């Protein structure tokens, strides 16, 4: 059942927007790592592996969550699998197809929220779904057509969105038995394991070349600060948002990643930013902001009615 927005809800909204902002510029250090001699699959293993290693000591302080968490622990685990599958989709299919298929995720999230959480499918949520799909189609459809899954990478992109929506639902319904920090550790550790498996498979298939030890050493010098300042905080924000919000709402907040990625790529790498982006990106932003604006309005109305 939907409820009026609380202070924690609004913090969760800001966390979701912050996560989308961070993941939107995620391509920049990833590209620098690749230019340093580490191919994409191994770069993703590095991007998840380093924060996973840094977060391992927290397991001792969170041990009670692991003792009593049970099924609630699956939320962060599925989130980690989803993140790694999304990374695999970027490797095994066109980037635009991977993005389109993953960001069908708000639809799965709203449906799961409707079935398992009792949240209503309101007019605003249908409107957000419509605006998001139209915006993504305007930007990407000319390059990829209708994104029906047609290869392993496409399926990774589609399934990753489903897994993420399911993970968000489990995090939200965990009953407070597992803290967001525990889900975050699970997210990074599982993502690192799956990303390493993907990199090893790609190497075995001859798709990618394993990096030299010297290349990894050069990258780690500057990558550790990036991990501490960008990846770890954004990972926590990624997990904190689903602790308070409907999975579909979380999906639309994360769609700001598309906007930030398109704008930052146009500024820093000279990638295309034309009429399609000028039309599609505001539609995506509108889809992501409808629910937070309504939450704020409902919260203020509840305060006014409470003081009346």
From TrEMBL:
Keywords: Membrane, Transmembrane, Transmembrane helix. The chain crosses the membrane at residues 12-28, 40-61, 73-92, 98-117, 126-146, 152-173, 185-204, 219-241, 248-267. It comes from Roseovarius indicus. Pfam families: EamA. Residues 11-140 form the EamA domain. GO terms for cellular component: membrane. It comes from the Bacteria. This is Carboxylate/amino acid/amine transporter.
